[in-house]
Write a structure and sequence with these properties.
Low-confidence stretches: none
Number of helices: 2
Distance between the termini: 54 Å
Order of helices and strands: EEEEEEEEHEHEEEEEE
CATH topology of one domain: Immunoglobulin-like
Length: 170
């Protein structure tokens, strides 16, 4: 922040100083770095680094995730970059089930790319480059009906039988 006072001069001398004027030299935030995406359980964690705020605090982020048609959409339920918790944490988590549904329509084995913009009182930055593209995989369900096989063949081998447990591909 800068403060200025002005004084006039003519052939008879100097005036008193004007009242001070204060200026904030700020502008829109810098372009964020590419965010990272990684699978955590059955969700995708999107993380980013705060860009330079350029003199005015960052007030929000827009977190956009690629759709099957290569357009990007925001998930304001899980990654609302207007909330203080996401602004401060610099990350959010989207369930993979959300990314498999409309409008994303991604499938198991697809890569998840995200882009970030940041805003302050002076406007919104340009989009970051797309992040690293985590591959969608799901953790399998736990096996059910686990039973011991009772037929122990030797002292170092134990047999188990189970059913259920969906693998979810991948």
């Amino acid at each position: 922040m800068y403060s200025f006072k002005v004084q006039a001069r003519n052939s008879f001398g100097l005036s008193d100083f004007s009242a001070p004027i204060t200026l904030l030299c700020a502008y829109i935030p810098s372009i964020p770095s590419p965010p990272s995406t990684q699978v955590v359980g059955n969700s995708i964690l999107i993380k980013w680094t705060a860009p330079s705020a350029n003199g005015s605090p960052i007030t929000s982020y827009r977190i956009k995730v690629i759709q099957k048609d290569n357009n990007f959409s925001e998930d304001l339920v899980h990654c609302n970059g207007n909330t203080a918790s996401i602004i401060n944490a610099l990350n959010c988590t989207i369930p993979i089930s959300t990314l498999l549904a409309q409008p994303y329509n991604l499938a198991l084995g697809d890569s998840v790319y995200a882009i970030i913009t940041s805003s302050n009182a002076y406007g919104e930055s340009a989009n970051s480059p797309a992040g690293n593209g985590a591959t969608i995989v799901l953790v399998p369900d736990a096996p059910i009906n686990v039973q011991d096989n009772v037929a122990v063949t030797n002292s170092t081998v134990i047999g188990l039988i189970w059913s259920g447990g969906v693998s979810h591909g991948g």
